[in-house]
Amino acid sequence: MMKQRLELPLGLLISQSGSYKAVSCAIRAGAQLALDEINACPEQSVTLKPVAIDPAGSLAGYVEGARVLLRDHELKHVVGCYTSSSRKEVLPLFEKADALLWYPSHYEGFETSENIVYSGAGPNQHIVPLTRHLLRRFGNRGWMVGSNYIWAWENNRILREAIAASGGAVMGERYFAVGETDLGDVVSQIIRDRPDFVFTTLIGQSGIAFLKMLRAAAEAAGIDQPRDMPAASCSLSEVELPQLGDAAAGHLSSSVYFSTIASVENRRFVALWNSRFGQIGQASADAEAAYVAVHLLARAAERAGSTEFEAVREAVRDLTFDAPQGRVTVDGENLHCWMRPRMGRSRKDGSFDIVMEHPEALRPDPYLTWTLDARDSDSPDLRLIQ
Known about the structure:
By secondary structure, the protein is of the alpha/beta class. The chain has helices at 21-40, 59-72, 84-97, 127-137, 150-165, 184-193, 204-220, 225-228, 264-277, 285-304, 309-316, and strands spanning 6-13, 46-53, 77-80, 100-103, 116-118, 141-147, 169-176, 197-201, 231-233, 252-255, 320-323, 326-330, 337-338, 342-346, 352-357, 383-384. It folds into two domains: 6-121 and 262-338, Response regulator (Rossmann fold); 125-259 and 341-384, Rossmann fold (3-Layer(aba) Sandwich), CATH 3.40.50. It is 38% helix and 20% strand. The strands form three sheets. It has an eight-stranded mixed beta sheet with strand order 7-6-8-9-10-14-15-16, with helices on both faces. The protein has a five-stranded parallel beta sheet with strand order 2-1-3-4-5, sandwiched between helices. A three-stranded antiparallel beta sheet has the order 11-12-13, with helices on one face. 52% of the residues are buried.
């Protein structure tokens, strides 16, 4: 006799259009892979019933979508948001509704909430390792350009403080509206300044346009941009590389997941991804974070024997999952995940060579309370991949 399965209505608040469509479509696809996997497994005690809304990349769309899911559908669990601005806009609605947002994206940190489970990397798992790498291997003269919201502001603040502490210089810092592609002037200034590295927190079409323009301008100036003026990011992923064309290779990305991780779990995930969603690019960190979020939710509900907000929230503390990136554990105190930092260098085939990785998963430190100074040579560092 089959055991009765819990029915868990699940909101999907994930954009399928807008300026960062490529990334958000990957998030939706990653969530769908997990949904299908869980619902098809006879050993699972939870059946997920999705309700999807497309906020179209606008803050107003996220707020209205959250209202519909939480008020009209009375849902207690929603996987969604990509930008930190959208997450912060909807958080008060989740607090009021006693509901959980399962947030499938790397982010800048400096936040904890009892209404959010964070399945993407935090600042000590991406920006701090990247900062150490840039300052040690390329120099301490940096240029920073980003989208004008909290993701860029906070990441750039961390890097700016590390550069200053190392005796270096921030040669320039500019911000642009999300989706802005008129970036010729800032690219020209960067070429004139010749920094040791460029750190970009531009997202979506802004980031794509910038990297293509930077590569073209550097080539015109006789600069080997990947070698002499590398562009580094904490968000560039596999689904965006095909849009870069001839400028796809040679960029640095700090992440906890790349499609080229050599593990049984990841090979299975990549094969599944390629068979279902390979047309949108290779598997990416955002897709994997959504996949992890849905699996964590299902396992927490199974552990709790309930789909209710408080029961699931308590059950997810210290929960582990053997994810494509490796074992992920939800920290019992801050509801962020223990994850293993990695560094990738992009290839023209739309994937990344993993050039550095930490030997083990790091405890999430959203406020950088325990993380040693980014320039400290005695602090735990990434391991070079030969």
